């Protein structure tokens, strides 16, 4: 919805394994300026968002990431602590980062739901969608206090990533 608000075409879909429950879910989102016709999985992403860092040792979640691509990992640990030092070294400076999205969500929502936090973070990291569009999408999906709390969580992540960008400049 945030991409639509910014005038882009967008498509999002999950990919599930054959397991019934508890298996990792890979989701894809395409954002383009022109109509999107492909329904294929994204094999060469421009951005990878890792909501569950426990997947890092068992899946190559960054496989196919474009050389100038971005990565946002939900973790309070450093990239080195997560075993991603080589990825960081071969990426553009500041393009692969971690943020404590679950902790930010707990602070603002009282629950470990990092989705809005990660959206705010990726907005700051990539500028693919504006923060205002992310906030509009959140308010369109969640009303009242839940929406407000998710918006505050997204804004907190946006500010954190903006500060990280300044520190790395």
Automatic annotation (TrEMBL):
One of its GO terms (molecular function) is oxidoreductase activity, acting on the aldehyde or oxo group of donors, iron-sulfur protein as acceptor. Residues 2-158 form the Pyruvate/ketoisovalerate oxidoreductase catalytic domain. InterPro entries: Oxidoreductase_gamma_subunit, PorC_KorC, Pyrv/ketoisovalerate_OxRed_cat, Pyrv_flavodox_OxRed_cen. Keywords: Oxidoreductase, Pyruvate. Gene3D superfamilies: Pyruvate-ferredoxin oxidoreductase, PFOR, domain III. SUPFAM superfamilies: Pyruvate-ferredoxin oxidoreductase, PFOR, domain III. Coiled coil: none annotated. PANTHER family: PYRUVATE SYNTHASE SUBUNIT PORC. NCBIfam families: PorC_KorC. This is Pyruvate/2-ketoisovalerate family 2-oxoacid:acceptor oxidoreductase, gamma subunit. It comes from Gleimia europaea ACS-120-V-Col10b. The lineage of its organism: Bacteria, Bacillati, Actinomycetota, Actinomycetes, Actinomycetales.
């Amino acid at each position: 919805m945030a991409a639509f608000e910014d005038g882009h075409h967008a498509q999002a879909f999950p990919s599930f394994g054959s397991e019934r429950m508890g298996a990792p879910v890979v989701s894809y989102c395409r954002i383009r300026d022109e109509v999107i016709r492909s329904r294929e999985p994204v094999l060469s992403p421009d951005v990878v968002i890792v909501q569950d860092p426990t997947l890092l040792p068992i899946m190559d979640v960054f496989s196919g990431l474009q050389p100038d691509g971005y990565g946002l990992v939900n973790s309070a640990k450093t990239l080195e602590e997560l075993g991603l030092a080589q990825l960081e070294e071969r990426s553009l400076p500041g393009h692969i980062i971690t943020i404590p999205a679950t902790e930010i969500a707990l602070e603002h929502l009282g629950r470990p739901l990092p989705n809005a936090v990660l959206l705010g973070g990726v907005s700051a990291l990539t500028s693919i969608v504006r923060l205002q569009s992310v906030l509009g999408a959140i308010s369109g999906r969640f009303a009242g206090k839940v929406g407000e709390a998710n918006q505050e969580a997204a804004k907190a992540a946006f500010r954190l990533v903006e500060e990280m960008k300044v520190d790395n400049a």
